[in-house]
Specification:
Radius of gyration: 22 Å
Helix content: 40-55%
Order of helices and strands: HEHEHEHEEHEHEHEHHHH
Number of strands: 8
Shape: globular
Oligomer: single chain
Structural class: alpha/beta
Strand order of the largest sheet: 3-2-1-4-7-6-8-5
Mean pLDDT: 89
Distance between the termini: 59 Å
Strand content: 5-15%
Low-confidence stretches: 385-393
Length: 393
């Protein structure tokens, strides 16, 4: 009896795991081949505000502003607005050096958090379209030429660009980050074709100011914005031609910290908007939220159940013994790769299992913090900036 239950748990959990990582991407790829929704693009030149939210970014803000000023767009239709969330370093001072070149500074007195500061900055933005950016992100000069034609379609409320993570040091962790992000980009592209994005890259997404709504301070704004847009009957779409680059994290500790914060925030957003996961009222958008977000964050549970069930069944089955040993070896390799990283050695291909474990451990910690009621409003600069990037490549 116990063995039958263990087998049921194993195969059920294994099925959810395969569906989450492989089945869902295949399904949306196939659907997008036959049921893609077109975007009616046209050359338009609306007033645009590039909104750069920053907290203590003195190391990168100058290069970011030079990069933004190099964007190819009529200067009389481009507003550059830096929203400083109570920065205490030289960030504001450096921004003021660009005032004679048209850059504006909005200083939020006292730290209120990224989302709160964005809310207030959007209120004073002059643009019909607001492009959200981070201080450590570098844009290609043609970014607006690629993004804006999508807004000629009145059904489009948000357009997200393509983020490319770079690391000239070729660190082990960056390989995992880049691989994961390429996988995420594939999913975003096909979700966009079928229905709507459920989340954008926080460093490159544009929104109609008329469709922007104030968000609660602890919101993960680049995730929640797509739900807000969808609730208004509009779509959020992916534009692969609009490209930016950003340095990856090079340390597992920093990557873990960032992912725990994002996952905890996203879980809070899902809970507060749980009605959006009802397929009867929200159709394919609900299917995306459940498959892409909710199940993804439940993967650690599936992994634990698979490990425990295969351990129980290993006593009676050579096949399950082999499966258990493969799993144990996989996790042992991840731990070994982490030890190599901390000792300053290259882990090579061992970085792949390491990043997989980091991503899923972050889900566990993020879930724990969410259940405890911990909420994030403030954020800290984590990634290093690299002035040599210039325009994204």
């Amino acid at each position: 009896m116990h063995n039958s239950i263990a087998q049921f748990i194993f195969w059920l959990s294994f099925s959810f795991l395969v569906y989450t990582y492989l089945g869902y991407p295949i399904i949306i790829f196939l659907i997008s081949r036959f049921l893609a929704r077109n975007v009616k693009k046209s050359g338009i030149e609306p007033m645009v505000t590039v909104l750069i939210t920053a907290y203590n970014e003195e190391k990168s803000i100058k290069e970011k502003l030079e990069n933004t000023l190099a964007i190819e767009y009529p200067k009389d239709k481009l507003e550059i607005l830096v929203a400083s969330d109570g920065s205490t370093d030289r960030t504001d001072e450096i921004v003021r050096e660009f005032v004679d070149r048209g850059v504006k500074l909005f200083h939020q007195a006292g730290r209120k958090g990224k989302t709160y500061t964005q809310n207030k900055a959007v209120e004073i933005a002059s643009g019909e379209i607001v492009l959200f950016s981070d201080a450590t992100t570098y844009y290609r000069a043609d970014v607006l030429r690629e993004l804006l034609p999508n807004f000629a379609d009145e059904t489009i409320g948000c357009v997200a660009g393509k983020l490319i993570y770079v690391d000239e040091t070729n660190s082990d962790l960056s390989k995992g980050v880049q691989g994961y992000w390429n996988y995420e980009t594939f999913i975003k592209e096909h979700e966009s074709k079928i229905c709507s994005l459920i989340g954008a890259s926080g460093c490159l997404y544009a929104v109609r100011k008329s469709a922007y709504q104030e968000m609660y301070p602890e919101a993960c704004s680049d995730f929640l914005i797509c739900t807000i847009i969808y609730q208004q009957g509009l779509r959020s779409v992916f534009e692969p031609g609009a490209i930016c680059s950003e340095e990856t994290n090079k340390e597992s500790r920093k990557e873990m910290k960032m992912r725990v914060r994002v996952i905890s925030q996203t879980l809070n957003d899902l809970w507060r908007n749980r009605d959006m996961m009802n397929p009867l009222s929200n159709g394919f958008f609900a299917f995306e939220l459940i498959s892409h977000k909710l199940l993804r964050y439940l993967v650690p549970i599936f992994l634990i159940l698979i490990l425990v069930a295969s351990f129980i069944l290993a006593r009676i089955s050579g096949a399950f013994l082999l499966l258990f040993l493969i799993q144990a070896g996989f996790y042992a390799i991840a731990i070994f790769a982490l030890l190599l990283e901390r000792k300053g050695f290259k882990a090579g291909f061992l970085s792949i299992p390491l990043y997989f474990v980091i991503a899923n451990l972050a889900s566990v910690l993020g879930f724990y913090k969410f259940l405890k009621g911990e909420r994030y409003t403030n954020w800290e600069p984590i990634r290093d900036s690299d002035p040599k990037h210039g325009n994204a490549t």
